[in-house]
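Interim report, section 4.2 (structural modelling).
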Amino acid sequence: MPENILVTGGCGFIGANLVRTLAERGLVRSIRVIDDESRGRRDAIAPYDAEFVKGDIRDRDLMRRALRNVDAVVHLAADTDVIDSITNPERNFDINVAGTFRLLMLMREMDVPRLVNASTGGAILGEARPPVHEEMVPHPTSPYGAGKASVEAWCSAFAASYGFASVSLRFSNVYGPMSFHKGSVIASFMRRILDGVPLTVYGDGSQTRDYIFVDDLCEGIVAAMTAGKPGVFQLGSGAGTTLDRLIELIAEVACPGRRPDVRYEPFRTGEIRHNWTDVTRAREQLNWTPRTSLPDGLALTWSWFRDHALSQPPGRRLSRQPARRTP
Ligand SMILES: NC(=O)c1ccc[n+]([C@@H]2O[C@H](COP(=O)([O-])OP(=O)(O)OC[C@H]3O[C@@H](n4cnc5c(N)ncnc54)[C@H](O)[C@@H]3O)[C@@H](O)[C@H]2O)c1
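Predicted structure of the assembly:
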């Protein structure tokens, strides 16, 4: 396990949970976080022993300082909004692709030997017959997906050409505490239930996704750092859940005995119908297994959302947050 870690985007949903995991378990000697706070907030990591550098990963001088004395980078910073990437592909390319390329160049210049890159399954593979796995041919359906596929290729090329260890982890749909700002389905449904407004489902509710609890995902990131194996790994729960079943499970923890009001709208263009993952490679090569059942993970997530909502100023409508969507 590397000792001195830089987490880019470390104030975001997954980043803050990873910092908590690393700090609480004393897994590393030092944690440094760089984040421009465009989405996450430094408050999320304030309780933990981590150095915070505020700024953009595209700022070379700042990144040189952030990379000093670092053994490994967990690269999470990204423009994660799929719909925005369709509206503004150039911005997405600049942050996600060019930003990562510059990070790779600086890691080479400064001899930082190890990278864990946050990638994605669904957006890279497009409409593929589940369970999806690492050997499938990518068919990205959005600039976000194309960017993530391209970054995987750049990481692989830098690893082969310049001899550092790089691994790309394809996350499925991640949920859990500290995701209040996310537009992902579980976060937006929970905010809407707290506000007492109907849930919106695009499609007939039969579409399936693979929901992984953030603690399990962070264990996967730690396992990948420890194993130091190169390549691409899917990290998911390994099971598909329909949206209608997800709503039933959320209702069981958030409003027992009653189904929330749900409005059904037509499927959105580009929306993938069915996606879940085969995690055999990660089980076998990283020695990693997701452990949290969906009902248990939803209960932990709901309890965090409820407490977080209570700490908001009175009268603030939570579901009016900008609707952002992460695959
Ligand atoms: N959450 C999911 O379900 C999911 C699924 C697949 C892949 N991913 C990937 O995992 C990573 C983390 O996702 P997340 O859900 O924690 O998202 P997030 O938006 O909560 O976190 C991203 C963080 O990066 C920061 N950031 C954005 N642009 C930056 C820049 N130019 N410079 C510095 N900081 C910047 C943001 O402020 C934010 O704190 C992303 O790369 C995302 O694409 C997430």
